[in-house]
Amino acid sequence: MKRTIRARKAVERMRPYYPPLEGRFGKVRLDFNENPLGCSPAVRRALAKLGADAISMYPEQGSVRAKMAKALGVRTGELLLTNGTDEALHLLVQTFVDAGERVLLAEPTYAMYRFYAELAGARIETLRYGAASEIPMPAILAALRRRPRLFFLANPNSPTGHLASYAQLRRILKAAPRTIIVVDEAYHEFSDMTVLPWLRRYGNLVVTRTFSKAAGMAGLRLGCIFAQEGLAAQMRKAQSPYPVNVAALAAAEAALGDRAFIARTIRETRRGRAHLERGLARLGIRYFPSAGNFVLAQFGERAGEIVTALAKQRVLVRDRSSDFGGEGYVRITLGTTRQARRFLRELERILPRKPIPRTFR
């Protein structure tokens, strides 16, 4: 009888994470919050210029880090580049959390916070967003008094779209000087809000960002960590020497120089949001106000059926029912106005066969 070599106990206890399905290319992708406009033309030109020498060398990121730091108003030593935000989250846990130490989450939220904490063998303390998707402030402040090692907070949060206020974030940071507060700003361009200027004011603040959303570079995997230089130096010790590939570095430099593309993305996202929200309201479908490039809607018990029917028409949205105990929630990425029209048109074709109860208010 063959014996299977066992993984670490922390790995055996983990729930598997299922990444996006194959076969999404060429469809109306409103399921993973990618940029429907693609990436900046400047990014494509920079990638086309990559020569054989650059590709055959190990990547050199120093000059790109310096330019990015200057553009964002931070010191070079306060910035780390990572292989997507996922590596940033992994690096934070690997650097600061020992097995058995506590990590605080407010769920539903980005699944990889829990994933990397579980992988490290951390004890996870979970709070819940409220019925109206509001942040559970009293519970957070009470939990922070128990001094967890890390608290992950996406702002805006996905899938709820909720945006914590500056006042709430100040209270959190002041309440937990010995807890690292990780503010994930993956969607900050769409919210007009950032705590990056607070970096030198709060020694327990870490900010993460990504080039996957507004910059349209999800396929290149580029993220950032911002922290005071002492914290950043500790993370740099735990990071692999070449975390970011040469194509991502060239693309990042080009993206930083094309602010007009980001502005266009934000304008198009806001137009798409207005059109989508009007359409959902007209159909009597409840949705939640969002500060990100997506909207969370409540479709009830037919959510899975509707998601499947839309996929057959090549329109992809994300069923997030499992995050809410099977209550029928669907997250819809804010694409272009044209894509929003297509989504609503296909949705109307599905609904008349068996109407959804009108729960919008």
Describe the model:
The protein has 361 residues and is an alpha/beta fold. The chain is built from 14 helices and 12 strands. Strand 5, helix 8 and strand 6 (180-184) form a beta-alpha-beta unit. It has 2 domains: 23-36 and 260-353, Aspartate Aminotransferase, domain 1 (Alpha-Beta Complex); 41-257, Aspartate Aminotransferase, domain 2 (3-Layer(aba) Sandwich), CATH 3.40.640. The model is unreliable at 357-361 (pLDDT under 50). The protein has a 7-stranded mixed beta sheet, sandwiched between helices.
Secondary-structure blueprint:
Elements: H1 9-13, E1 28-30, H2 41-48, H3 52-56, H4 62-72, E2 79-82, H5 84-96, E3 102-107, H6 111-119, E4 123-128, H7 137-144, E5 150-154, H8 166-175, E6 180-184, H9 188-191, E7 205-210, E8 223-227, H10 229-238, H11 246-256, H12 259-282, E9 286-288, E10 294-298, H13 303-312, E11 315-319, E12 329-333, H14 337-350
Parallel strand pairs: 1-11, 3-4, 3-5, 5-6, 6-7
Antiparallel strand pairs: 2-8, 7-8, 9-10, 10-12, 11-12
Helix pairs in contact: 2-11, 4-11, 5-6, 7-8, 12-14
